[in-house]
């Protein structure tokens, strides 16, 4: 039996999403400025640029302003961001990357990892991953090294 194990975790860095949104906003802004006399292109590009700006702001918020939280491993469940995740509801736990790895918990009936179920350890990541692997083995949850997607 496993006692309760706690680790300090935080949201993963969204640098890739931030750079992608900057690229989208830049290209669409150029189209808006150059092809402003063509109504269809103007409004479409403006809409895409505004949606990119919203995505950029969300990614910046999650990267820079989201506070640390706690991951709690206990018998047959994980508590993350105040949400209880039962082991029987987890399809797979994925680890992406080697330096500052990001962990994603994929529930059944989902294709991508929900935002609240992706995290990285604030410190002692080796011990954190080791504890998570032990928990996964005890609860028959598959754990793999694999890249995964989340929403912004």
Helix content: 40-55%
Computed Rg: 19 Å
Strand content: 25-35%
Largest sheet: 8 strands, mixed
What is the succession of H and E elements? EHHEEEEEEHE
Number of extended strands: 8
Structural class: alpha+beta
Mean pLDDT: 84
Tally of helical runs: 3
Low confidence ranges: none
Write out the strand line-up for the largest beta sheet, numbering strands in chain order.
4-3-2-1-7-6-5-8
Shape: elongated
Determine the N-to-C terminus distance.
37 Å
Characterization of the model:
The protein is of the alpha+beta class and 152 residues long. The chain has three helices and eight strands, in the order E-H-H-E-E-E-E-E-E-H-E. It has helices at 15-34, 39-65, 125-138; strands spanning 5-10, 69-74, 77-80, 83-86, 90-96, 102-107, 118-121, 143-145. An eight-stranded mixed sheet has the order 4-3-2-1-7-6-5-8, with helices on one face.
Give me the secondary-structure topology.
Elements: E1 5-10, H1 15-34, H2 39-65, E2 69-74, E3 77-80, E4 83-86, E5 90-96, E6 102-107, E7 118-121, H3 125-138, E8 143-145
Parallel strand pairs: 5-8
Antiparallel strand pairs: 1-2, 1-7, 2-3, 3-4, 5-6, 6-7
Helix pairs in contact: 1-2
Provide the descriptors you would attach to this structure in a database record.
eight-stranded mixed beta sheet, alpha+beta, 3 helices, 152 residues
Outline:
The chain is 40% helix and 26% strand. The protein has three helices and eight strands, in the order E-H-H-E-E-E-E-E-E-H-E. It has an eight-stranded mixed β-sheet, covered by helices on one side.
């Amino acid at each position: 039996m496993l006692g309760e194990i706690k680790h300090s975790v935080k949201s993963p860095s969204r640098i890739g999403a931030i750079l992608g949104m900057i690229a989208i906003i830049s290209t669409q802004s150029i189209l808006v400025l150059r092809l402003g006399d063509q109504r269809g292109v103007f409004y479409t590009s403006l809409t895409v640029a505004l949606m990119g700006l919203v995505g950029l702001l969300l990614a910046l918020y999650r990267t820079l302003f989201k506070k640390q939280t706690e991951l709690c491993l206990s018998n047959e469940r994980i508590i993350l961001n105040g949400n209880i995740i039962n082991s029987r509801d987890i399809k797979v736990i994925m680890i992406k990357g080697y330096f500052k790895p990001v962990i994603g918990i994929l529930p059944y009936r989902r294709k991508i990892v929900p935002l609240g179920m992706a995290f990285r350890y604030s410190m002692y990541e080796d011990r954190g991953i080791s504890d998570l692997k032990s928990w996964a083995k005890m609860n028959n949850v598959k754990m793999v090294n694999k890249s995964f997607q989340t929403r912004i």
